Amino acid sequence: MTGCFHCGESVPDGSADYALEIKGIVQPMCCPGCRAVAQTILECGLASYYEHRTAPGIKGELVPSELAALTHYDLAEVQQDFVVETGSGSQTLREIQLSVEGLTCAACAWLIERHLTKLPGLHYVNVNTTTHRARIKWDPATLSLSDILKGFAKIGYRAYPFQTHSQEALYAREVRSYMFRMALAGLGSMQVMMCAVALYMDLFISVEEEFMIYFKWISLLLSTPIMIYSAQPFYVGAWRSLKQGHLSMDVSVSLALIGAFAASIWATVFNTGEVYYDSITMFVFFLLLGRLLELRARRKASESSSNLARLVPIMATRIDEDGEQEVAAKTLRVGDRVRVLAGATLPADGIIVAGTASLDESMLTGEQLPLLKQGGDPVYAGTINTDAPLEIRVSHAIEESRLAQIMRLQDSALDDKPAIAQLADVLSRHFILVLLLIAAAVWTFWHFHEPQRAFWVTLAVLVATCPCALSLATPTALTSATANLTRNGILLRRGHVLDVLTRANRVVMDKTGTLTTGNISLVSTQLLAELSEADCLAIACALESHSEHPIARAFKHLDSTDALLTASEVTPVIGYGIQGLVAGTQYRIGSARWLGLAGDKGQDNQESGLAIYLADDRRLLARFTLADTVRADAKALIAAFQAAGLKTTILTGDGSTEADAVARELGVDELVKGMTPDGKLAYLKAREAAGDISIMVGDGINDAPVLAGAHASFAMAGGTDLAKNSADAILLADDLSRLLTARTLALRTRKIIKENFAWSIGYNLLVLPLAASGWLPPYLAAAGMSLSSLIVVTNSMRLNR
Q1: Which residues are CB-contacts of 293 (< 8 A; sequence separation ≥ 6)?
Q2: Cα gap 138→48, rounded to integer Å
Q3: Which of 496, 299, 502 is nearest to 416 (CA)?
Q4: Structural contact between residues 788 and 470, judged by C-beta atoms closer than 8 angstroms
Q5: How far apart (Å, rounded) are the C-alpha atoms in residues 163 and 591?
Q6: Which of 55, 202, 269, 575 could form a disulfide with 676 if both were Cys (CB 3.0 to 4.6 A apart)?
């Protein structure tokens, strides 16, 4: 009785259906379990396991260590360092950034995305060819992380959780691999060229036949290692694509290499026709040189997020009952007390509990001047303590720090492909098919007119028109622009912002906290009932302590009044005010309109300044007059936008004459005041229907709907969390001039992308007739193609300056 190829046990009669072909030989399997395990091993490209194993596999259970190790990533204690939970409601999703080995072009990304979307429970996948990372969202109740990683392995890619040190190691391995392959190709091509000189001498002097044959065989021996080892990345990429029924640029390159090498072998063995070993080896060298330069350029363009991660120190000084001790920064937990010496970098987000110092937060906000921080102020990981020791209490674990959030949002923006990037991907994929059809037509023409040159000319066409530059035109520019914006204190959350900034014709801004400082102060209190001023202030303070609105901050410093009260059952009414129970009585504080005082015109409109009212369930109790100041850079911002041809609008919920005064001072084109959150969104939709493309800038909870509904939106750094989550971008410093920086960079990005497209398409249109007519030899075509890609990447990196 035959033994099972996998586990070695006897194969019962009637088990022929379980047999499996392994390396061209049909091997017997004893059961469906063994067959399934063997099939998984083969599909993951690990068939060599059977060559090197020293004992039979365990029945239906054993898989190679490479596959078994993937299940370790399903453990919660392993995932906590790199998996983030997202989603809302009843469905909780998990999100992860993966490093991906083996990516060469946009077609690879398309191939992975297409394959993984078939997995049940996978909600989102996006592969970034510039950073060599993939962002995945999945339902843990349906799909495990190890199954996702196996999905990569099944199509020949290796993926693992992104961590800075592992990404550095991967980059070093890739560079070393390309250097070895390129060194072999360079040395080999020089030796082959020496043989080629001897072969070319036959054109001028008579060379004996046996010497000609000798030099051909020497060239074959020298070229073979280059074709097998140096050119391997192109074959692997082509095979991955063809397995999925897809065409990539590696397909055309591999066809050119294999075809030319096969023709040369035929000419060598049968001593008939021409050999092309010198051109083939030089072609491989130039291709590898181009890939290596692109790899380094992409690394330069995408290194900003890795640089952010390096800003967090490895060690921290924790203070506990045993004194001070050095611990790993990643082990700090909420509530730990940490000492930060002068000149040191903060290891975690926290609150200052002792000390006063100036902190350099330029890496977060782009603001170069240090900011004075004292007891009670929040501080952030990665910022630098410039002048005095501090003691802080950790408020967030490192994976939830502001720096970690910035890195996740930056990666999310890079993953969010704008329309122009999607167009480039589609063009590069379809271009390959068109190229192969053109190559076939060129071969047919030359075959009937000059057969000895047909193959050679077709080879030049395949090489010269490879769309590497086209696929790199957009992603490298967007990556460089995003890194530049991050350095300047502008954090993109969605990739379409740069595109909208170039097309927008209207800027819509909230007033309070956006055009004004938001540091609202209480000017006066007018009593409207027999209640004392102290009691009215105490009630207002109790209610407003539950709100993050800028108006609420005017009352929070009053919590030291003698009649300090607390509020319960507090309900904010967005756009109007807040209500709740204080000492058993229902109170409301907010706008006159909400409290039923306004009539048709609104009492706020009839009175000067910004005012809100306090009332119980029977009567008005007090009127509070407030004041705010306009930001110093607001007027210059409005003037700059108007000079650039953009219309400006103030869209505010403030219905008082304070809004009119601000509009007059800034000189905006339009003021729309007294708007509810729904009214703000309706205004924006009306402008969209009229053909406007609008940018919205806001900071409050009441701005969240309109920030989410705008073509592109920015939230202020001091705004509410809801506003930041609804916006497409965040100003990390409350500096409105950064909006002009963003628009200027967006215009430069559009210009450079157009230049990249013009160069990529123009180069192909220029070189195609030269190659098809036989005027361009393949080795020059390879050099031109590599140079074209390098020009595109280098041009895009200008945005990083």
Answers
A1: 786, 789, 790, 793
A2: 32
A3: 496
A4: no
A5: 50
A6: 575
82 contacts 163 by C-beta, under 8 angstroms: yes
3-state secondary structure of 25: strand
Look at strands 506-509 and 694-698 and give their pairing: parallel
Contact 729, 714 (CB under 8 A): yes
Token digits of residue 308: 């952010």
Q: What is the pLDDT of residues 168-217, one digit of tens each?
A: 566 677 778 888 888 898 898 888 888 877 666 554 456 567 777 888 88
Instruction: Find out whether 3 and 10 touch, Cβ atoms under 8 Å.
Output: yes
Among candidate residues 191, 182, 271, the one with its CA nearest the CA of residue 232: 182
Provide the token pair at 419: 């329309």
The residue type of 659 is A
| Residue 130, token pair as written in the block | 């510039």
- Angle (deg, nearest 10), helices 778-796 and 451-464: 10
Residue 265 CB: number of other CB atoms within 10 A? 17
CA angle, residues 374, 380, 384, in degrees to nearest 5: 75
Q: How confident is the model at residue 130 (pLDDT cuts 50, 70, 90)?
A: low
Any residues with CB less than 8 A from the CB of 89 and at least 6 apart, and which? Answer: none
pTM: 0.55
In angstroms, the CA 380 to CA 464 distance is 51
Indicate the pLDDT class of residue 63, thresholds 50, 70 and 90: very low
Residue carrying structure tokens 């004004």:
516
Amino acid identity of 799?
L
| Coil, helix or strand at residue 711 | coil
Would you tell me the crossing angle of helices 419-449 and 106-116 to the nearest 10 degrees? 110
- Tell me, what amino acid is at 275? V
Does the pLDDT value for residue 745 go beyond 70?
Answer: yes
Phi-psi region of 577 (alpha: psi -120 to 50; beta: other; left: phi over 0): left
DSSP state for residue 56 in the 8-state scheme? P
768: number of CA atoms within 13 Å, CB side? 18
C-alpha distance from residue 54 to each of 50, 51, 65 (Å): 9, 9, 14
Amino acid making up residue 273: G
Q: Are 642 and 742 in contact (CB under 8 A)?
A: no
Distance CA 459, CA 357 (A): 67
Residue 290's nearest CA partner among 253, 317, 341, 244 is 253
- Rounded CA-CA distance 398/329 in Å is 8
42 by Cβ neighbours in 10 Å (0-12 / 13-18 / 19+) ranks as: middle
Cβ–Cβ under 8 Å, residues 701 and 576: no
332's tokens: 């700090």
Cα separation, 562 vs 546, whole angstroms:
19
Closest CA to 89 of 136, 124, 139, 126: 139
pLDDT for position 225: 92
When pLDDT is averaged across residues 402-430 and rounded to a whole number, the result is 59
- SS3 helix, strand, coil % of the chain, rounded to 5? 50, 20, 30
| pLDDT per residue as tens digits for the range 29-55 | 776 656 765 665 565 454 554 565 544
**In whole angstroms, what is the distance from residue 51 CA to residue 741 CA?**
60
H or E element in which residue 492 lies = strand 490-492
**At 439, is the secondary structure helix, strand, or coil?**
helix
Q: Which of 748, 201, 321 is nearest to 498 (CA)?
A: 748
Condensed to tens digits (0 to 9), the pLDDT of residues 693-738 reads: 888 888 766 676 778 778 888 888 777 666 777 788 888 777 788 8
- The residues, any chain, with a CB within 8 Å of residue 349's CB and separated by 6 or more, are 378, 379, 380, 381, 394, 395, 396, 400, 401, 402, 403
The size of the chain, in residues, is 801
Task: Give residue 380's identity as a one-letter amino acid code.
Answer: Y
Rounded Cα distance, 497 and 504, in Å:
10
Q: How far apart are CA 626 and CA 612, in angstroms?
A: 8
What residues pair up with 725 in beta bridges, in sequence order? none
Say how far apart CA 419 and CA 416 lie, in whole Å: 10
